[in-house]
Amino acid sequence: MKSLLITLLFVAGSLTGMAQTQSDMNKQAGQEYKEADKKLNTIYQEILKKYAANKTFITNFREAQRLWVQLRDAQLKAMYPGPAKSYGSMFPMCKATYLTELTNQRTEAIRVWLNGLPPGETCTGSVGATE
């Protein structure tokens, strides 16, 4: 019985150490979004460098990225159409988490221009057309 009580106290103490305030969670989610955005921008720049000789691709790729930013912002407005204060103190965390998800999706979508397509894929379009 004594060991059970000690174990419960240890677990309770561990959980208390993991507790965060809403402000902490908002900051953490914001930081995760910044990291995801930085990763997207790094890959975007690598693609621009790799395909620099393909001017048509670069023009179209830049336009696609510009439009994606507009889509991302529109999706955010659709997800949270009301004023920020109407969603409570969790809103900064929720917003950042949603932006992180959208940004990670975009990162994976454009990564194909760096990593290529699976072997045997015949519809390659501009992937690999660096000239």
TrEMBL record:
Q: Does the keyword Cytoplasm belong to this entry?
A: no
Cite the entry's keywords alphabetically.
Signal
Question: Which Pfam family is one of those matched by this entry?
Answer: LprI
Q: Which residue numbers delimit the Lysozyme inhibitor LprI-like N-terminal domain? A: 18-108
Signal sequence region: 1-19
Q: Which domain of life is it from?
A: Bacteria
InterPro entries linked to this entry: LprI-like_N (IPR009739)
The answer to keyword Lipid biosynthesis applying to this record is: no
Please identify the protein, giving its name as recorded.
Answer: DUF1311 domain-containing protein
Q: Which species expresses this protein natively?
A: Chitinophaga oryzae
